[in-house]
Specification:
Length: 304
């Protein structure tokens, strides 16, 4: 095994790819764009790194994403190698280029949601048909008095759960979506709301500030869904609740181009694994069939 690993890294291009994947999982096109290499070259190097056991891959529809293997040996090897590699200029430049690429994609994502904000009710109906997802999620919040909707969009869910003396916090990256949410919530009597611009990888909510967090049909937009679940764990008090609503795994590639989805849904196993990893237990799941044969899972879990 060691010989294969050393052979696989005895090439500067493969070492650059391995270094790049220390930041995040990436697909072939993204690696091409950052390193300026041709597709066949990148694919060949990825195959060698994967065969050696240094990388693993995840197939999602027609896309394949690569990341560092999580085997015990690879983790230890990476901890020794990556700091040494990142002390050299070429590899630091690659990481800087990756961050520029990611920032540009994030800007395009915000612009997409700003542009599509006014059409979001129609998009929601196109995806959900007559299924009332907000009411289904709202039925899980029980007696929680302070709820954070992470990726609140135009505030549709917040408008359903904001009542009585309940306080709701909405977080979204799109300023236009937050404008629409404020317009919607301002018309409701009862409850109070606080809308905050922010990313789900760094939520502008204090530790343990809320009784319940909701991540409603948002994880499929994110590079690293686990970061959002980790942030939800941080802001929910001990004994509080996290609710996640998400598509089950599917293979409709049009969702990437039309709606900006990065993930084509999630398996129940993956959602459960993320919840357990970030300190949630007592996981319950309810499944709903919507139009075109798609399914949505609503997960309820308790912060341990």
């Amino acid at each position: 095994m060691m010989i294969n690993i050393l052979k696989s890294l005895a090439d500067e291009s493969r070492l650059r790819i391995f270094n790049l994947l220390s930041e995040n999982e990436l697909n072939v096109h993204e690696i091409q764009s950052v390193l300026g290499m041709g597709q066949s070259r990148v694919s060949r190097h990825l195959r060698i790194l994967t065969d050696s056991g240094l990388l693993s891959c995840r197939k999602d529809g027609l896309w394949v994403f690569y990341r560092h293997s999580d085997s015990d040996f690879t983790v230890k090897f990476r901890e020794l190698l990556v700091p040494e590699v990142q002390s050299e200029d070429q590899f630091l430049r690659d990481l800087a280029q990756l961050r520029l690429y990611t920032e540009q994609r994030d800007r395009e994502g915000r612009e997409f949601f700003d542009t599509m904000a006014a059409q979001w009710p129609e998009i929601r109906e196109e995806l959900m048909g007559d299924f009332d997802l907000s009411s289904a999620v709202a039925g899980k919040v029980d007696s929680c008095s302070k709820i954070a909707d992470l990726g609140c969009g135009d505030g549709e869910l917040l408008s359903v759960v904001m009542k009585g003396d309940r306080k709701v916090i909405g977080v979204d990256r799109s300023s236009r979506m937050l404008d629409l949410a404020e317009e919607r919530l301002s018309k409701i009597s009862g409850g109070s709301f606080d809308l905050r611009p922010g990313e789900l990888s760094s939520v502008p909510v204090r530790d343990g500030e809320v009784d319940c967090a909701v991540i409603n049909m948002v994880l499929h937009f994110l590079d690293r869904p686990g970061d959002a679940v980790g942030e939800a764990s941080r802001i929910v008090r001990s004994g509080g609740k996290l609710i996640i609503a998400e598509f089950d795994s599917h293979g409709d590639e049009s969702f990437r181009e039309r709606f900006g989805h990065r993930w084509l849904g999630f398996s129940e196993e993956m959602i459960n694994r993320l919840l357990v990893k970030h300190g949630f237990g007592s996981i319950e799941r309810e499944s709903f069939k919507i139009k075109e044969g798609f399914c949505i899972g609503i997960y309820s879990s308790i912060k341990i």
